[in-house]
Amino acid sequence: MPAIARSLTAPAPMLLPLRLLAGMSLICLMGLLSPLRAAALEDFIGTYSGWAEVENASGEMSLRDLSVVFSAQQRDNFTLTWKTVSYRSDGRVKDISYTIDFVPSDRDGVYAAAMGTNVFGHSVQLDPMKGDPYVWAQLQGKTLTVYSMFIGEQGGYEMQEYRRTLVEGGLELEFRRFRNGKKMKTVEAFLARQRQ
User: Fold this and answer.
1) Closest residue by Cα to residue 167 from 192, 196, 137, 194
2) Same-domain check for residues 76 and 130
3) SS3 of 65, please?
4) What is the three-state SS of 157-182?
5) The domain spanning residue 160 has which CATH number?
6) How confident is the model over 125-144, as pLDDT tens digits?
7) Number of helices and strands (H, E) in the chain?
8) Number of domains composing the chain
9) Where are the beta strands (DSSP E) in 59-169?
10) Same domain, residue pair 146 and 163
């Protein structure tokens, strides 16, 4: 009988060690891949800071200090505070900060911004048709993206995306701004996790 035929007709007792070996190999492989697991909200909790050089509309480069704080309110609720300090060549300093609470939506990994309160005292999203931003967050893999949409007076729109990805020692930030589908600005930076 040819060797191939003999190996295909191995007695059942020989298959048990092969199955055991295959199972152990799978467990080892899963152990190697565990760093690739999706992040949980609690993995983001902390304070991060960094800086970026940004080109403004006139082509002038300016330095920006960036910081973000993730804090948890309840199990699936979280608060995100981010701050940008811009330094202009003429000596002016512009300081902008935002704080938004997020609550789970009916979709897995998608969080609604709780920026307003309805007549019953429940947290609700703002109305973009009234000039307010419509904000939500998405957790996918190790990246938490916050989207913010504004509808202009003439019906045009602006979208902002803040992609924050967990990496060794902190976060990689990618900010993108679009106006009516056209990319207006991109900022990339590394934000180091601060010791508590």
Assistant:
1) 192
2) yes
3) strand
4) EEEEEEEEEEECCEEEEEEEEEECCE
5) 2.40.128
6) 667 777 788 899 999 999 99
7) 3, 12
8) 2
9) 61-72, 78-87, 93-104, 110-113, 116-117, 123-124, 134-140, 143-151, 157-167
10) yes
Mean of pLDDT values over 12-18: 48
* Closest alpha carbon to 102 in 76, 128, 122, 126: 76
Share of residues in the chain with pLDDT > 90 (%): 48
Compare 7 and 195 and report the one with higher pLDDT.
Answer: 195
Alpha-carbon torsion, ordered 105, 109, 115, 118, to 10 deg: 10
Q: Does 17 share its domain with 85?
A: no
* Highest mean pLDDT: which range of 4-8, 136-140, 182-186: 136-140
pTM above 0.85, yes or no: no
Q: Which helix (H) or strand (E) holds 189?
A: strand 182-193
User: Taken in order 10, 11, 14, 18, is the CA torsion positive or negative?
Assistant: positive
How confident is the prediction for the chain on average, in pLDDT?
Answer: 80
One domain, residues 21 and 87 = no
Contact 139, 146 (CB under 8 A): no
92 is in which domain, residue-wise? Answer: 41-193
The structure tokens 């009916």 sit at 106
Residue with tokens 């990994």: 109
Same domain, 11 and 67: no
